[in-house]
Amino acid sequence: MGNGKKKFDLIGTPRVGSNYLISRINQHPDILCHYELYSVNHVYTAFPEHYTNKGGEGEIYKDKNYRDRNPLEFLNKIYADSSASATGFNIFPKQNDLVLEHVINNPDIYKIFIQRKNLLNSYLSLQIATKHNAWNSLKSSKIPLKDKVFHLDCIDFELYIQGTRSFYSRLKDQLLTSGQTYLAVEYEELVKNSDALLNIFEYLNQTPYISETATVFKKENNNQVFEIVSNYQELYDFCRNKGYDFL
Fold first, then answer.
1. pTM of the predicted structure, to 2 decimals
2. Fewer CB atoms near the end CB (10 Å): N or C, the chain?
């Protein structure tokens, strides 16, 4: 990218609404945000399909072997091949530690954290997605309720809470220690009104823009927790004893 172009990274954990947020960001005419560039088995770009399909100029961007040979060089090419005023991508924990640390240590890359206040909803979504291999709302919305029901392991849930909070805290502390800034966006605020989206555009020094057109990815519309968790009373007692305000 030439001078004046902004680079940014959307950092979060799975099942916090990142696909939905990216689809909203990409409605802005001057911003391009890629999805999971460093997913284990695929490279999810937001370039037009005709560009990355076989025979297209950007065909190489679908080749994960090409990506994995030099992950940082791949990222630099992704940034350079965008004409948008601001270009970014999404990354999750353990997808590529080298790239994540590069982003965190690079003050020229704007950092945006997406997280979820209600970690129980995020955990439930993760369990269902893992079981059914349904990693976006297009697939998960088709799963019948009876197939979503499962027994929740409270110990595993506690480890998930600790790990998630530790991930965000570590990176934010690292940024603050190095004198960098970041923007934190909560999924619950994003779906409530447009302020969270406008804050992102302001953070990236882009003009405000809100589209009235619906996105491909939908806001999550969860069933009630007691409908999904077969041992709901055990979960309720666990959250009450721990002081978790998730229910």
1. 0.92
2. C
Question: Does residue 3 register a pLDDT over 80?
Answer: no
Question: In the prediction, which pLDDT does 222 show?
Answer: 65
For 96-117, what is the mean pLDDT? 97
SS3 for the chain, per residue?
Answer: CCCCCEEEEEECCCCCCHHHHHHHHCCCCCEEEEEECCCCCCCCCCCCHHHHCCCCCCHHHHCHHHHHHCHHHHHHHHHHCCCCCEEEEEECCCCCHHHHHHHHHCCCEEEEEEECCCHHHHHHHHHHHHHHCCCCHHHHCCCCHHHCCECCCHHHHHHHHHHHHHHHHHHHHHHHHCCCCCEEEEHHHHHHCCHHHHHHHHHCCCCCCCCCCCCCCCCCCCCCHHHHECCHHHHHHHHHHHCCCCC
**91 pLDDT exceeds 80?**
yes
